[in-house]
Each structure stands twice: as structure tokens, then as C-alpha cells.
Amino acid sequence: MRVISILNDPKPSLSFEVFPPKKETALESVERAVKTIAQIKPAYMSVTYGAGGGTSKYTLDIAKSIKEKYGVETVEHLTCVSSTKEMVRRQIENIKASGVENILALRGDIPADMLDCDRNGWAYNHATELIAELKEANPDFCIGAACYPEIHPESRNSKEDIRFLKAKVEAGCEFLTTQMFFDNTLLYRFLYKLREAGVNVPVVAGIMPITKANQVERAVKLSGCHVPQRFISLVDRFGSDEASMKQAGIAYATDQIIDLFANGVSNVHVYSMNKPDVAQKIYSNLSDILGKSYE
Ligand code: FAD
């Protein structure tokens, strides 16, 4: 099933993200986590992909198994930065053969040692090029892309960021998934700007439940997102006790999701980081809200 049909439904939907193992030895534990999260029967699950192909080896297998073994719809991430045309084409052929219909098309982060090199000769400089290629390879693919409520770190301003986002939609992207954010007002402001610029595809809100104090620093470093004082106070107070921090982090994420649903953002994607217990807890906190129709 193309996930756009889920995203166009006004009912609240909750989906989860998993990531493939870096080493073969970790495959079994990732598969266990995937199975437990799939048993929650979320709206869909997405599987991340290593930029440059690094940890991509298992992405498609995991995405395929989510669909075939557990009957949950799946979105395979695909990056193109520092890849050759041939590598990407091969991967697209593999996706076509697998039956996976939904792809989150990404550029990927530019590797640190390539930041200063001349990128003119690169096969892919931006996700737009990958989206166009996917659309050409199979017009039936349902293609999504990333967006950034607090603008992408390489962008000069939000106007420029949204202009390039619009180009992704014009190239064939049918939905957008946001970078994590901890302050919903930033998302509402971003959505207003998107609609004003004529970007009208569904936007899936990406929520990261922070369950350990040291995750905050990593999340901020990765995404550059703003951490509100309310969240800083929570980490200050509970960060030293693992169980308390986990409970508080799940409650904060749940609260964010309820506020999003209440304000008409129907689709939420949880960066569940291969933690089935976190996914289960968030899902059960929302069990009466999910699956109902609020017109
Ligand atoms: P792009 O859309 O290419 O944008 C990158 C920058 O270039 C932006 O500043 C944009 O404004 C600008 N830009 C875009 N088009 C043009 C143009 N035509 N000309 C000039 N400038 C332009 N990374 C992974 O490695 N694997 C994953 O699985 C993964 N999943 C992700 C999922 C989500 C929901 C998000 C939000 C991010 C994910 N990332 C992943 C991280 C992502 O790869 C990085 O944020 C990366 O730096 C940008 O990717 P992009 O697809 O947004 O790039």
C-alpha cells in the first residue's frame, strides 16, 4: 500500500522508525526489536539507510520483512550523497524487485572529510535529483522527503529552505517527514510558512522520545534543534536516574503528540530508536485516541 493513503486519512496515525544494525552480530537483536514494534500494528514503519551505503546492507531486507512477515506497511529510506549513478540505480532495481512501494528519498549528510571538496562532479548533490530518478524508474513509487521546521543547518534562511522543499514536491515527493523538534510552536509556524508557499502535501511530525540525559546533547548536535526550558528542567531534575528520566521523556513525547493531534496534525512518526518498550509505552498512552475519527 502507498502510505499516502494513510497520510491523507484525517484519523490520527502513529508510525515508528527503526534502524539497521551496523554489524552482522547485532542483526538478531535488531530483528527482535523490529518484530516487537511491528506487533503494535503501527500505521507504518520506516527503516533508515546509511549515507554513502555505510549501514545500508540490511535496510531493504528489514523493510521487506516488516511488510511480508508482520503485515505492517513500510517505508525504506534511501540516500544518494557520495553515491555513483550505478550504485543508486542498482538499489532502485532492488527496491522494485522487493515489492516495497514507499521510499523516503534523502541526500544524506555530507561526510566530514568531503565537506571542503569540489562537489561539481558529484552524481547527486540534492535529494531532488534522487526523487526525479525514483519517479522515472517507477511512477507508482510513493516518495517522501525530509523537511526541517528549524531549517536545515546548511540553509541560509527559511525562505530558501522552503523554496528547495517546494522543488522536492514538484519533482514527485508526495509527503514530508520532519526533523525532530521539542517545541510544537516551531512546527505550527513552519506549517503556516509551507502552506503560504503553496506546499500542500501531508507533513508527518517527527517526534524523538528522549529517555536518557546524554541523548539530548547528541540530538541537538545532530539536528541543531531548540530545546525548550521545560525540557531542560526535566532533564536537570530526572536525568541522573535512568527509570525516572525514561518515564519523564516518554511523558513529554506523549504530551507533544497529543498537542499535535489536538491541533490538526494527524500523522506522527516516532523516532523509536529500536526501543520496543518506548514504542509500546507511547502507543498505549495514546490507545484511545488512535484509530478514531475526529472530523
Ligand atoms: P536536501 O533536500 O538535498 O537538502 C540539503 C540542503 O540543500 C538543504 O539546506 C536544502 O535547503 C539545500 N538544497 C536542496 N535542494 C537544493 C538545490 N537544488 N540547490 C541548492 N540547495 C539545495 N540520513 C541518513 O543518512 N539516512 C537516513 O535514513 C536519514 N533519514 C532521515 C529522515 C528524516 C525524516 C530526516 C529529517 C533526516 C534524515 N536523514 C537521514 C538526515 C539527512 O540525510 C540530512 O539531514 C541531510 O543533511 C539532508 O538530507 P535532505 O534529503 O534533506 O537533503
Task: Please explain how this structure is put together.
Helix 5 runs parallel beside helix 6 and helix 9 packs antiparallel against helix 10. This protein starts with a helix and ends in a 10-residue tail after the last helix. The protein has an 8-stranded parallel beta barrel with strand order 1-2-3-4-5-6-7-8, surrounded by 5 helices. The chain is of the alpha/beta class. The protein is 45% helix and 13% strand. It is globular. It binds flavin-adenine dinucleotide. Flavin-adenine dinucleotide (FAD) binds next to strand 3, strand 4, helix 5, strand 5 and helix 6.
Reconstruct the topology from this structure.
Elements: H1 4-7, E1 13-18, H2 27-39, E2 45-47, H3 59-70, E3 74-79, H4 85-98, E4 102-106, H5 127-137, E5 142-147, H6 158-171, E6 175-178, H7 184-196, E7 203-207, H8 213-223, H9 229-238, H10 242-262, E8 267-270, H11 276-285
Parallel strand pairs: 1-2, 1-8, 2-3, 3-4, 4-5, 5-6, 6-7, 7-8
Helix pairs in contact: 2-11, 5-6, 9-10, 10-11
Flavin-adenine dinucleotide binds at residues 48-51, 77, 79, 104, 106-109, 126-128, 145-146, 152, 154-155, 161, 164, 167-168, 177, 179, 206.
